[in-house]
Structure formats: structure tokens, C-alpha cells
Design brief:
Number of helices: 5
Radius of gyration: 16 Å
Distance between the termini: 31 Å
Structural class: mainly alpha
Shape: globular
Number of strands: 0
Order of helices and strands: HHHHH
Oligomer: single chain
Largest sheet: none
Strand content: under 5%
Helix content: over 70%
Length: about 140
């Protein structure tokens, strides 16, 4: 049975509330690690955008299932939809994903196999994401989407 618009919005609101708590824990962990306020803000904003814009745009996708969407986000959507996408911003997002999901592992929100899967995705696909971003930003149109 397909959920109604109202049911979808309620599910998204619950996820946003859960994400607010997760982002608070993440922010505190970054501050405790001694990162600068600017760096903390960048990582938290990156993850807020991913969790509350991207994942909720395509369904009420909870944080734990977000690991499996990292490749489609950084390798396609972010490149095409975000004017600020550059190879450097992709690298920043990679760092944010690693830090965030490592924090979620420590908090018991995901398990070690989930985090290992994230690391594998990044290791296998990061260079392709960067190459596709460079190509897109340079107006090349002969790459695979």
C-alpha cells in the first residue's frame, strides 16, 4: 500500500527530529575532538544537507540507510544539482561522511559492518566522483551518468 502525502510528511518530520539529535551529538563530538568552529560548522552543515534535504527528497530515508545512497549523492545528484560542487567540496563531503558515520558507530546508531561498507564505497568510488565533477564543471558531456 502506498503511503499518502500526509503520512510521508509525518515520517519525514520524525526523521528530521531524529536527525536533529544525531547532528547535535555529531557537533559535540567534533568540538570535543578540538576542531575549529568553522570546520565543525562545515561538517555539520554538510551532513544536515545530506540527511535533511537529499535523503528526504527521495523518500523518508533514515540516517542508517543513508550509507547506501552516498554514491548516488556524491557521484551524480550533488554534481548536477549543487552549483557549489567542486572536487574540493566532494573531498570535504567525504571527510564529513566518514566523521559523521564514525560518530554514529560510536553512538550505536550503526554497526561496524555499516561503517566498513561506507569506507568501501568511498574507496571504490571517490576518484570517479571527483573525475565526473571536474568533467561536469568543465562542460564535458561524454561521461556516463
Amino acid at each position: 500500500m502506498e503511503e499518502s502525502y500526509e503520512e510521508h510528511e509525518l515520517a519525514c518530520e520524525r526523521i528530521r527530529e531524529d536527525n536533529a539529535g544525531r547532528l547535535k551529538v555529531f557537533k559535540e563530538s567534533l568540538e570535543e575532538a578540538g576542531l575549529s568552529a568553522k570546520t565543525v560548522a562545515r561538517h555539520v552543515n554538510n551532513m544536515d544537507f545530506y540527511l535533511n534535504v537529499y535523503l528526504l527528497r527521495y523518500g523518508a530515508i533514515p540516517t542508517s540507510e543513508g550509507i547506501d545512497r552516498v554514491g548516488s549523492f556524491l557521484g551524480d545528484w550533488f554534481i548536477r544539482k549543487c552549483m557549489w560542487s567542486t572536487p574540493a567540496s566532494i573531498r570535504q563531503y567525504v571527510a564529513s561522511f566518514k566523521k559523521f558515520y564514525k560518530c554514529m558507530l560510536s553512538a550505536g546508531e550503526i554497526d561496524a559492518s555499516d561503517y566498513a561498507r561506507l569506507e568501501d564505497i568511498i574507496k571504490e568510488e571517490k576518484d570517479d566522483w571527483i573525475e565526473e565533477c571536474e568533467a561536469y564543471n568543465n562542460g564535458w558531456d561524454d561521461f556516463d551518468w
